[in-house]
Write a structure and sequence with these properties.
This protein is of the alpha+beta class and about 230 residues long. It has one domain: Class II aldolase/adducin N-terminal domain (L-fuculose-1-phosphate Aldolase), CATH 3.40.225. α1 runs parallel beside α6 and α2 packs across α5. The radius of gyration is 17 Å and the shape is globular. The two termini are about 20 Å apart.
């Protein structure tokens, strides 16, 4: 039950931190079966309770005959879990600070401060036209588009989705939430810094070393964020 409680808390935290609003979703890999994942039914993240959690196969099929309406883009989650055995949780959001970096050519999202050091290098951009053609609604509606998104993500932590948002992964739900929150913070800081002048980004070595340090501090942020949730 702990994992379900963490998933509910993750939805609430991401809403309170401005990463999710009425849309977006967060999942985690089923601890009892790595070929399945847990994701809420089609409901606004701030309203998710334990009773809303559904279980899916990696192809996005609801398990155990659960007939409740699922999120349209559940294929994002299943495809990434299939491609990345190291991933234990996935966040898909439309956080506003991140979106410009997926639509402006020549402005890659890169780490500008240590809390976002997981953005090592530059973050890839998923161009859905390359996978779906020009006749699309920007949504990852099926397995083939999910696989294409997972390929663009590669071994990274975040993939931008042109004109749509982003998807962030972590080894567990707490790390995925941490990264989603600080990806948004980094995007806002980077945009502000670019208005002032040339930006000094973290080097690969700095980003790697900082990521190693931050990995041991995620619980500190999680405890703060959960303590601030409405009762």
């Amino acid at each position: 039950m702990t994992s379900v409680n963490d998933l509910v808390a993750a939805n609430r935290i991401l809403y309170e931190r401005g990463v999710l609003d009425g849309f977006g979703h967060v999942s985690l890999r089923d601890e009892s079966d790595p070929q399945r994942f847990l994701l809420a039914r089609n409901v606004a993240p701030a309203l998710v309770t334990a009773d809303d959690i559904m279980t899916f196969d990696l192809d996005g099929t609801a398990c155990d005959g659960d007939a409740r309406t699922p999120y349209l883009e559940r294929f994002i989650h299943g495809s990434i879990y299939r491609a990345r055995p190291d991933v234990g949780a996935v966040v898909h959001s439309h956080s506003p600070g991140v979106i410009p970096f997926g639509i402006v050519s020549g402005a890659p999202l890169r780490p500008v401060f240590h809390m976002a050091s997981f953005l090592r290098g530059s973050v890839p951009v998923f161009e859905i036209r390359d996978a779906a053609g020009p006749d699309n609604d920007l949504l990852v509606r099926d397995v083939s588009l999910g696989h294409a998104l997972a390929r663009t993500l590669g071994a990274g932590s975040v993939v931008l989705m042109r004109g749509h948002g982003s998807t962030t992964v972590g080894r567990d739900v707490r790390e995925a939430v941490f990264r989603a929150v600080y990806a948004e913070a980094n995007a806002r800081l980077q945009a502000e810094a670019l208005r002032l002048g040339p930006v000094t980004y973290l080097s690969e070595t700095e980003a790697l070393r900082s990521s190693e340090s931050n990995a041991g501090q995620i619980t500190r942020a999680w405890e703060l964020w959960t303590s601030a949730l409405p009762s």
